[in-house]
Write a structure and sequence with these properties.
eight-stranded mixed beta sheet, 16 strands, 13 helices, OB fold (Dihydrolipoamide Acetyltransferase, E2P), alpha+beta, BirA Bifunctional Protein, domain 2, binds aspartyl-adenosine-5'-monophosphate
C-alpha cells in the first residue's frame, strides 16, 4: 500500500491509509488512547485500542500505521484515524526528553534548542522557518533564471581574501596557507567576464568575525548575483527590488500556513526608497539626535532609520546609496559625480542590513591603480586582475544574507533560529 502524507489524507478521500511518522503526544484513557501522529506535513489524531501496544508506546517513537479514516468534528482538522495496525519502526532509547516538544511554546533556552537541534526541529513551528527559507532560495533561483542568469558554483577554499579586513579563516591546504571564502566576489565577477554575463550563486560564506551577536554567524549562506553590461548601480537596485516583489508574492502562494503560524502579513512591495548615506546620517542627527560613525551608520542607526522610513514611506525596506570609497572594498566603482563616494548600496530591511552591492571597477588599469591606492599589490590577485585585460564589460552585483532575510521576514529575534546548524564564536557542534 502507498504511504499517504498527513496533509493529503482529506484530499485523497481514501478510507484506508498507510501513515508514517512520529508519536507526537499520547492521551490515555481506560481502554484506548488518542495518539497524535506527526509527519513532515502535519499532525493527525489516531485512535488506538491495542492496549498491549499502548503499554510500550513512547512519545517520539517512529511508527507506521494502517487505519481507517473517519470524520470527527471534535478531532483536530475534523478527521481521525482508527488504527488497525501500528508498528514501531524506530525505537526510543531515552529516559526523559531533553525538553518537551509538544507544548504550545518551546520550554528550552536557545542554546539548549541548538544543542538538541534534531529534537527542537521536530516542532512544526521551528521547522516552518526552514520551509520559508527553502522557498526564499527557490524564489531567488527562479526569478534569476527567468532573467537569463546562470547558476554557478565557485570554490570555497581560496588563495587570497576578497573583502579585505582580517575576518578570514585560514585553512591548511597541503603545504600552503589558504583561506575560506568570505564571499564568491572575485569568481562571480570573473564568470561575468568569462561570457556568462549574468550569474548567481547560492553558497556558504565564512567570516572569522568575533562578534557574537543576534545577527552574526561565522558561516552563512550568501545569495550572490553578478550582472554584466549594466548602466550603473541603479540597474542592480532595480533587479533586487524586482526580486523582493517576486519573493513576497511567491511566499504568499507557497507558505501561507507558515506565515500564518508566525502571524506575518507580507506587504505588497512598490518602490523601495533610495537615500544617500549622507542624507540618512543627516536625518538621523536631525530626527533622533543620533550621531553616525564616519562613512556608515551603526546597528542602532539602522533601526532608527528604518523606523523613520516606515513612518514616512510606509516601507520596511530602504536602499542606502553612495558609500565612501574608504569604507568599501577595493573593487568598488568610484562615483564621478560625488567626490570620494562609490556606486554602491546597502539594503536595510526592518532595521537590519541584509544586502551589500554595487557597480565594480571594470577597467584593468583603473583596477590596478585602485589596488595600489588601497595599499594592496595587484600581483597578489593576479588570477583576478588578469581577467580584466580582455574586455571586461561594465558590471556589478549584490549579495543577500539568507539567514538574515529569513529572520526578518518572520520577525525572529536571533539569526540562529533561522540557521539549521549555526556556527558562531562558541558553537561548532552539532
Ligand atoms: P557583505 O560583506 O556586506 O558584502 O555581505 C553581504 C551580506 O551578507 C550577509 N552577511 C552576514 N550574515 C550573517 N552573518 C555574518 N557574519 C554576515 N556577514 C555578511 C549580510 C550582508 O548584507 N561581496 C559583497 C557583496 C557584493 O557586493 O556583491 C559582500 O560579501 O546580509
Amino acid at each position: 500500500m502507498k504511504r499517504t502524507f498527513i496533509s493529503d489524507i482529506k484530499e485523497a478521500g481514501i478510507e484506508e491509509v498507510l501513515l508514517k511518522g512520529w508519536v507526537h503526544k499520547i492521551r490515555s484513557f481506560k481502554d484506548f488512547a488518542f495518539v497524535l501522529l506527526r509527519d513532515k506535513s502535519g499532525v493527525v489524531q489516531l485512535v488506538v485500542t491495542d492496549c498491549e501496544k499502548l503499554k510500550t508506546l513512547k512519545q517520539e517513537a517512529a511508527v507506521e500505521v494502517l487505519g481507517e479514516v473517519v470524520e470527527n468534528d471534535k478531532a483536530p482538522g475534523g478527521i481521525e484515524v482508527n488504527v488497525r495496525k501500528l508498528t514501531v519502526v524506530g525505537k526510543t532509547h531515552y529516559e526523559l526528553m531533553p525538553f518537551s516538544i509538544n507544548g504550545k511554546e518551546i520550554e528550552a533556552s536557545l542554546e539548549k534548542q541548538l544543542d538538541y537541534r534534531t529534537i527542537s526541529l521536530r516542532r512544526p513551528d521551528k521547522r516552518a522557518v526552514f520551509k520559508i527559507q527553502e522557498e526564499i532560495v527557490e524564489a531567488f533561483r527562479n526569478y534569476l533564471r527567468e532573467k537569463n542568469f546562470s547558476e554557478i558554483h565557485t570554490p570555497k577554499i581560496i588563495a587570497s581574501e576578497t573583502e579585505g579586513g582580517s575576518e578570514v579563516f585560514t585553512v591548511n591546504y597541503f603545504e600552503r596557507r589558504t583561506f575560506l571564502a568570505q564571499s564568491p566576489q572575485f569568481y562571480k565577477q570573473m564568470m561575468v567576464g568569462a561570457g556568462f554575463e549574468r550569474v548567481f550563486e547560492i553558497g556558504h560564506a565564512y567570516r572569522a568575525e568575533l562578534h557574537n551577536t543576534w545577527r552574526h554567524l561565522n558561516e552563512y549562506v550568501s545569495l550572490d548575483v553578478e550582472m554584466g553590461f549594466i548602466k550603473d548601480e541603479n540597474d542592480l537596485m532595480d533587479l533586487e527590488e524586482g526580486f523582493i516583489k517576486h519573493l513576497f508574492s511567491h511566499l504568499k502562494k507557497t507558505c501561507k500556513k507558515e506565515l500564518d503560524r508566525y502571524k506575518i502579513t507580507l506587504p505588497d512591495i512598490d518602490k523601495i526608497p533610495r537615500i544617500t548615506l549622507s542624507d540618512a546620517q543627516e536625518i538621523l542627527l536631525k530626527e533622533f539626535d543620533k550621531k553616525s560613525p564616519v562613512g556608515n551608520i551603526d546597528a542602532q542607526g539602522e533601526i532608527l532609520f528604518s523606523k523613520y522610513i516606515k513612518e514616512k514611506y510606509d516601507s520596511d525596506f530602504v536602499f542606502l546609496t553612495k558609500y565612501p570609497s574608504s569604507k568599501r572594498p577595493v573593487y568598488t566603482m568610484p562615483d564621478d559625480t560625488f567626490e570620494g563616494m562609490t556606486k554602491s548600496f546597502d539594503l536595510i530591511y526592518k532595521g537590519l542590513e541584509i544586502t551589500t552591492g554595487g557597480q565594480r571597477i571594470h577597467d584593468y588599469k583603473e583596477l590596478k591603480e585602485n589596488m595600489i591606492k588601497f595599499g594592496c599589490s595587484p600581483e597578489d590577485f593576479d588570477f583576478y586582475v588578469e581577467s580584466f585585460k580582455y574586455g571586461m564589460p561594465p558590471h556589478g552585483g549584490f549579495a543577500i544574507g539568507l539567514e538574515r532575510i529569513t529572520m526578518k521576514i518572520l520577525d525572529l529575534d536571533n539569526i540562529r533560529l533561522a540557521t539549521l546548524l549555526p556556527r558562531d564564536v562558541n558553537r561548532i557542534t552539532p
